[in-house]
């Protein structure tokens, strides 16, 4: 399988604090990769580095075939990003948001119109095309936000807790979209606090105190930890760190 | 009482732990006063003057030479009628005009008395003031030279007229203005930000749900700023006195008393702003546009009110800093006591009471 | 203890309906969960109960005090923890606690026994600023602050949102202990799996209560056969099941797909043969007991079909 993210001995320090302690892992093209960890385990730090927003202290990293140290601009053009906190402009309409994001990734006007139309149709949002995003329910916003994050057909899309607080039905519709994108060959790199969502991933890594303590398919992890579900696996791992603190 | 103490202590923690607030609270007054002080007291050199010598005798000739020889003045033109003087001022050719009366030398010898009229462009009052004092000083030194050999002293009277700003603001005018500005900033702006910050963080929700009364929340929130504002007043006065040698003619306690009244007014304004906004940014914008700009532009701090268009003059009636600046200017520079400034103080008092009432009434016990 | 009758709340002059004619009652000593996604109306309901908002119509009472008229009494007897942990980020752990104690006219020592279990966990960090605490520790501190005046009722608005699974579990253990002290607890959460930890729950969505009952009773109300299905290609499995005749719902659920049919007599073998026909391999099918999340989706489905504008 083709590796689309390669991380070797990644270390990130903030003064004396080690946020990422020697991480090594690969992500394959087209897979859904779950990136889990307790609050403060170093997930966000690592994700920022992979997105080209922050420089690692040391280690070899390549994302979408580009070097993290020298080719941050190229990385940014080849990835999509969506977070729960910030995604869409509330005071722009659905269409204007699509237009804007497609625009900053350098799509031509014709492409923008074409893809916007397709996207709106796929989400069934024809009637909401000219509505302000602020007036949409949270679930719709998240679905729209994800579709926009992949409108430029990136190689990888990074999702930072994309389904926090979303109702269970919409949450599943959201995962339908993720599966579909993965099926189209887009690699999904996702963090979440919902442990049932960890089960949807092809492979899952669990970070504890800046280190990756486990990395495998959900099925194998459950076997390895003799656990009924991913929640148990997670609690077994994260507890270790709590006791130290 | 315990609650109140805890509240105030917490508020001080906030202030002391936020470097930006500390900077505004204590850095600003010092920087402002130094900035205004040094910018305004400029030295004078080669000031353009015009002379209308009505008697053209030896004495007037000598005085003119003495002025020009001092290096401070530069003769631009000789003129011979009043019309020309005003034109020259309007065109900005000159900063000062001297008019020697008819029969100057004769008057001096026979009546021991002669007049020089000095007209200055006082649109920059500080410069104008300096020019007049330099001119008078040179004329005075000339007379003392003459008088050295005489038994009955001769006298040359200089009579100055300020154009464009007849009431002549003092060099130290910037001190009351700066005080008004700083107090507005600290008391109104910082208070409104401190309250809206709690709304933004959600801690206001917890305070509202607690058994605290609205008045307790307000007083607890505001008390530290009263103390800090008073410290600011004292700092500014001390700086003005020590670095710029500003004399304080009137009563220091009256000055601080009026300042405290103004602080309360500004705090009430700050609370009022915080009741109509829910985030720090809006509170800051409102404070900037509704408080700081009028304080700078409409209070008579920088631009003389008399020179404003009528509409703006009316508008200044509702600008509280105007009354404060008026009152403390009179205390500091003229030594007026309460019987002179009671009108300003009364207006300020009325405004304060209205604002406090309004802000307590508008402060919501709920979230909407 | 808590009585809510025909409560309605709208925002923006009626254009947004946050609560639509809500009825609810909570018994003394109960651990009651309000379960629903963001925007369901949980926060609006809690703010009305804590007297922070005034309802458009209907009444809300706590211990027979009206939440509008008797707001002063209400504020004495409730401990409230708002959505975002409302702590002073620039005060230390200790300073926050002392401050909130004195605001409620008490001292940390007076009711220390109540918070002891929780506070000892964060005590080693008592000099640290609240802003520098991890999510789990912030949550514990916020709970300590809400408890310090020994309230009759604790109202906790999404205390576990954004907190990792371990801290969430610890938090629920603490709530159970507090319940033993006789404190009534009203807690909201978007996590369906926390429902089983409550005595009774209300499922809420779009300002309406879908169901109020004990968790097990809600599960018993689910009157369809529910199947957990797995196959080697999960994406294809979803796509194919969506074409199943008499399909009611098909949802991803952890490592399985949860499937219900409109045909109540459907058998595992019916589904099995359908999947085999569609070339699926490693097929696993089992009838299972529904979870609260299954129930929520079943209740909400009716609503959702209307919602599609």
Structure description:
The complex is a heterotrimer of chains A (245), B (368) and C (309). Chain A is an alpha/beta fold and 245 residues long. Chain A has a single domain, classed as Rossmann fold, CATH 3.40.50.300. Chain A has nine helices and ten strands. In chain A, helix 5 packs parallel to helix 6. The longest helix of chain A has 16 residues. Chain B has 368 residues and is α/β, with parallel strands linked by helices. Chain B folds into two domains: 230 residues, no CATH class; 117 residues, abc type-2 transporter like domain (abc type-2 transporter like fold, 3-Layer(aba) Sandwich), CATH 3.40.1710.10. Chain B has a five-stranded mixed beta sheet with strand order 2-1-3-4-5, sandwiched between helices. In chain B, helix 7 runs antiparallel to helix 9 and helix 7 runs parallel beside helix 10. The longest helix of chain B is centred in the middle third of the chain and has 30 residues. The radius of gyration of chain B is 27 Å and the shape is elongated. Chain C is built from ten helices and 14 strands. Chain C is 35% helix and 27% strand. Chain C folds into two domains: 218 residues, 3-Layer(aba) Sandwich (Rossmann fold), CATH 3.40.50.300; 67 residues, Alpha-Beta Plaits (2-Layer Sandwich). With 309 residues, chain C is α/β, with parallel strands linked by helices. The C terminus of chain C is likely disordered. Chain C starts with a strand and ends with a helix. The longest helix of chain C has 16 residues. The chains are: A alpha/beta (245), B alpha/beta (368), C alpha/beta (309).
């Amino acid at each position: 399988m083709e590796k689309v993210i390669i991380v070797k001995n990644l270390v990130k320090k903030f003064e004396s604090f080690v946020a990422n302690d020697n991480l090594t892992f690969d992500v394959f093209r087209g897979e859904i990769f779950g990136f889990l960890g307790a609050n403060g385990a170093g997930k966000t730090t690592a994700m920022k580095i992979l997105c080209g927003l922050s420089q690692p202290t040391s280690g070899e990293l390549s994302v979408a075939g580009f070097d993290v140290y020298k080719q941050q601009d190229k990385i940014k053009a080849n990835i999509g990003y969506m977070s729960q906190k910030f995604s869409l402009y509330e005071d722009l309409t659905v269409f204007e948001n699509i237009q804007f994001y497609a625009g900053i990734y350098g799509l031509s006007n014709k492409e923008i119109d074409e893809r916007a139309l397709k996207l709106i149709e796929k989400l069934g949002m024809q009637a909401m095309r000219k509505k302000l995003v602020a007036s949409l329910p949270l679930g719709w916003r998240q679905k729209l936000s994800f579709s926009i994050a992949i409108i430029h057909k990136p190689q990888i899309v990074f999702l930072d807790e994309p389904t926090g607080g979303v109702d269970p039905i919409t949450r599943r519709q959201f995962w339908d979209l993720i599966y579909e994108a993965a099926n189209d060959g887009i690699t999904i790199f996702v963090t979440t606090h919902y442990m049932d969502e960890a089960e949807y991933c092809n492979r899952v890594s669990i970070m504890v105190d800046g280190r990756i303590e486990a990395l495998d398919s959900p099925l194998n992890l459950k076997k390895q930890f003799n656990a009924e579900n991913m929640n148990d696996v997670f609690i077994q791992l994260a507890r270790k760190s709590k006791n130290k603190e | 009482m315990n609650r109140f103490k805890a509240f105030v202590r917490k508020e001080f923690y906030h202030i002391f732990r936020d470097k930006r607030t500390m900077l505004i609270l204590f850095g600003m007054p010092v920087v402002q006063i130094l900035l205004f002080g040094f910018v305004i007291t400029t030295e004078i050199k080669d000031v353009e003057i015009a002379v209308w010598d009505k008697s053209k005798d030896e004495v007037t000739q000598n005085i003119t030479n003495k002025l020009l020889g001092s290096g401070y003045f530069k003769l631009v033109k000789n003129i011979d009628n009043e019309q020309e003087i005003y034109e020259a001022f309007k065109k900005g050719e000159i900063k000062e005009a001297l008019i020697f009366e008819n029969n100057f030398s004769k008057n001096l010898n026979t009546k021991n008395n002669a007049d020089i009229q000095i007209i200055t462009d006082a649109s920059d009052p500080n410069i104008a003031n300096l020019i007049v004092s330099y001119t008078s000083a040179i004329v005075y030194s000339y007379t003392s030279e003459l008088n050295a050999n005489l038994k009955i002293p001769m006298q040359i009277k200089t009579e100055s007229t300020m154009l464009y700003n007849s009431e002549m603001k003092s060099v130290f005018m910037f001190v009351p203005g700066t005080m008004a500005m700083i107090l507005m900033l600290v008391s109104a702006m910082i208070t409104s930000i401190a309250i809206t910050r709690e709304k933004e963080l959600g801690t206001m929700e917890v305070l509202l749900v607690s058994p605290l009364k609205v008045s307790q929340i307000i007083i607890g929130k505001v008390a530290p700023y009263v103390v800090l504002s008073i410290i600011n007043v004292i700092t500014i006065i001390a700086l003005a006195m020590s670095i710029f040698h500003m004399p304080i003619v009137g009563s220091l306690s009256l000055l601080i008393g009026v300042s405290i009244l103004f602080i309360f007014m500004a705090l009430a304004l700050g609370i009022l702003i915080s009741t109509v906004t829910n985030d720090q940014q809006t509170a800051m914008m409102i404070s900037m546009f509704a408080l700081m700009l009028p304080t700078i532009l409409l209070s008579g701090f920088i631009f003389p009110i008399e020179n404003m268009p009528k509409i703006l003059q009316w508008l200044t009636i509702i600008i509280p800093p105007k009354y404060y600046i008026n009152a403390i200017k009179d205390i500091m520079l003229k030594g007026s006591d309460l019987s002179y400034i009671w009108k300003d103080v009364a207006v300020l008092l009325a405004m304060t009471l209205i604002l406090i009432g309004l802000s307590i009434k508008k402060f919501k016990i709920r979230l909407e | 203890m808590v009585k809510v009758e025909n409560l309605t709340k709208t925002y923006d002059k009626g254009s947004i309906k946050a609560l639509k004619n809500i009825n609810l009652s909570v018994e003394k000593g109960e651990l009651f969960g309000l379960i629903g996604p963001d925007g369901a109306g949980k926060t609006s309901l809690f703010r009305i109960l804590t007297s922070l908002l005034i309802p458009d119509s209907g009444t809300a009472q706590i211990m027979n005090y009206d939440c509008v008229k008797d707001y002063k009494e209400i504020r004495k007897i409730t401990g409230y923890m708002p959505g975002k942990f409302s702590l002073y980020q620039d005060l230390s752990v200790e300073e926050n606690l002392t401050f909130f104690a004195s605001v409620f006219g008490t001292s940390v020592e007076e009711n220390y026994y109540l918070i002891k279990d929780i506070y000892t966990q964060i005590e080693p960090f008592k000099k640290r600023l609240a802003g520098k605490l991890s999510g789990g520790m912030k949550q514990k501190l916020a709970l300590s602050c809400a408890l310090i005046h020994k309230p009759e009722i604790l109202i906790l608005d999404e205390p576990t949102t954004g907190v990792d699974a371990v801290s969430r579990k610890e938090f629920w253990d603490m709530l159970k202990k507090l319940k033993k002290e006789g404190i009534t607890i009203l807690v909201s959460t978007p996590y369906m799996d926390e429902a089983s930890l409550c005595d009774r729950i209300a499922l809420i969505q779009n300002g309406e209560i879908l169901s109020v009952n004990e968790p097990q009773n809600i599960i018993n109300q689910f009157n369809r056969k529910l199947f957990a299905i797995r196959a080697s290609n999960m994406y294809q499995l979803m796509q194919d099941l969506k074409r199943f005749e008499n399909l009611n719902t098909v949802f991803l659920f952890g490592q399985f797909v949860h499937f219900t049919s409109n045909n109540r007599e459907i058998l595992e073998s019916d589904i099995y043969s359908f999947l085999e026909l569609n070339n699926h391999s490693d097929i696993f099918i089992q009838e299972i007991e529904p979870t609260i999340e299954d129930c929520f989706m079943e209740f909400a489905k009716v609503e959702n079909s209307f919602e599609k504008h």
